[in-house]
Each structure stands twice: as structure tokens, then as C-alpha cells.
Write a structure and sequence with these properties.
Shape: globular
CATH superfamily of the largest domain: Type I PLP-dependent aspartate aminotransferase-like (Major domain)
Number of helices: 15
CATH architecture of the largest domain: 3-Layer(aba) Sandwich
CATH topology of the largest domain: Aspartate Aminotransferase, domain 2
Number of domains: 2
Oligomer: single chain
Amino acid sequence: MNRANEIFAAELDAIRQAGTWKTERRIASTQGSSVVVDGKTYLNFCSNNYLGLANHPAIVASAKAALDTRGYGLSSVRFICGTQDGHAELEAAVSRFLGTADTILYGSCFDANGGVFEALLNDSDVIISDELNHASIIDGVRLAKAQRRRYAHRDMGALERELQATQSSRLRLVVTDGVFSMDGDYAPLDDIVALARTYDAMVMVDDSHATGFVGPSGRGTAERFGVLADIDIITSTFGKALGGASGGFVSASSEIINLLRQRSRPYLFSNALPPAVVAASMTALELVDRDPGRPAQLMANALRLRHDLVATGFTVAGHEHPIIPIMLGDAGVASTFAERLKERGMFLVAFSYPVVPKGQARIRLQLSALHTSEEIDRVLAAIIDVGRELGVLAS
């Protein structure tokens, strides 16, 4: 083994010793309320398939039709020869859906967040970011020359102090997740918008864990808080509620979107979205409008399980969202909890440092509109059983 590999092997051993080793479970089925792993069927409570659209017949049919009529891939970036009619149609559909002037597509929301800040902001500007924002926002911010400031999670007093301290800047951009994926809590966008307008700042929201099912018509966190028209930049994904495949976007003013088309490196240097993903994503947006029962069922499932877990004695983070973290504290307990649930046929994942802060290890449930009452009963019973086994709950 050469010196470099010896160093890397030692780093891998450190990850194992820390108990944060990530394993990939190979699913031999479609993504649904249950999955098949190693020949065994598990109830699936760790997927982002919120609306259950990942294998919806209409979405699969759209993808198949696009393969027949538009091919498998474009073999090009958008500005060379990678733009089909479907790309423009999907961008227009997203803009209509969110009520924005224009939209630009990316390979993922990670790419979208990685391509915004550097393209729009310079060293005369300031980015003010919630301390628990997604890794893609953190990485995107690092690429920009703008000054970087953070505020304590959802702390509006801290945000206002940062806005007051940066008033001499050319532009200030407040950026936040709409829903924080590890905690299942919402950014208080009504308060953020009010502060931003008071101090002449812009607001950007990554709404990946809300687009399609949060808000009265599924337009996301900003709709939930009544400020959809007041958000300057929305980034989100087709890879969660909207079909669960891949693809992301930025939706904003025509000036912002046109500037991104000229400068945003992940857009300029990445292949265009495959035609099948484009067509399927169009159908997913249509289904959100045609089938409001799915978001309603999803939220009913989430409210019911949250209530029952709290009533049983668990500490549950978050607010009225299908991300439901059970706070356990100890990383070893969380890991054992997940393994015991797997033994009972439940597919969940434990999260511990460095994914979450030290001392805040947890099991994170994610519900789908596909989950039945009987399946929710089963996972609740299994969680209670394991909680008592491990001393998390009183016997």
C-alpha cells in the first residue's frame, strides 16, 4: 500500500471508530411504502418519496414516451446543442407553478445551490445564512467572493443584527432552507421576509423538502407562510416529492435567471437533463394540481404519527412535517435503535455527528402519502417496542 492509501485507510478507520460509517442498502424493487432488500420486504420510512410519485403509472408512461420521441440523452450542455423543446416547457411550467418570471434547470438542487451565489454576488456583497442550512448551500456559499455571515437557527433577533451590521454592502442575500431536513422544522419565512424588506435585502429559499406538498396548493414553504410573491430566489428539486428521480431548478426574476444562464458554472458545464426526466417532471407538476388528495393524506399521516409518538413519551423534533426525528441523543443508542427496527422489518436510518450536532443523534422517519394506517400502526408499535427494550421509554 502506498503512502497516500495508508493515509486514506487511516481516515476510513477513524470514520468506522466514530460510528458514522455509511452503508448502502441495495434495493431490489421500486421505491414505495415498502422495499425489498436482500430478498426481504421492509416497510420504508426513510425515503423522500413524499407524494408516492416515484413509480406513478402516469410518470413512468411519460418517461417511456420521452425515450421513444426525444431519446436517452443530449450529450451536450444546454447552450451548445442540449436544449430540447421539453426543457423550455418544463422551465415555463415551474415558473407558472411558483408564480415567478423565469426558471433555469440544473442536474440537481445541489448543483442549483452550487451555481447561484458565485454567479450573482461579488466581494461587495454579503450572504447571511441560517446555521443549519443544507450542505449544498454551504458549499455554494464557499464558492462566492461575497462576505459570509451566519445567524443562529431560526433566530430572528440574530438575523436582524446581521442585517443591521451589513447595511453598507452593495447587495445582501438572506438564504435559508424552507424545511430543514434533519429537524423537520420550517423557516419562519414571514418574519424573514419582513426583516429583509425592512433592511433592503433579498431572500433565497431552498424548498426541496416542501415543493409539491407544503402549503394549500403545494407551492411550498413560502405559500404556507403567505409570502410566495415576496421570495426573490427559490431553488428546489424534482428528486423528492416531484417524482423522485433527479433534476433541480432556480426560479426567480428574468434578470436573475438570465444572469445564471450566462455565468452559472454547474449549468454551463453539465449535460442537460435527460428527456425522460424532463417529461416525467412535467407530469409530476400536473399531478400535484390534479390530485390534492395526496398532500392531504401525507400531512394526515404525519400529524397522526407525530401525535402518537409524543403521547407515548418520545421527544420529537420539527413542526407538522412528514420528516419526524425521534431525538435519542446518544449515537450508539440511535444506531442500535435503527438495527433493532430493521430486525422488525422497518427501514429507517440513524443520524449522528457529524451529520447532526454532537449529542443530538436521532432516528428520522419520513412519511409518504402511500403509507396506510395499518403500516403506521406497525411502525409505531415497533418503535415503542424498541424504545422500551433500550430504556428510552419506561416499561
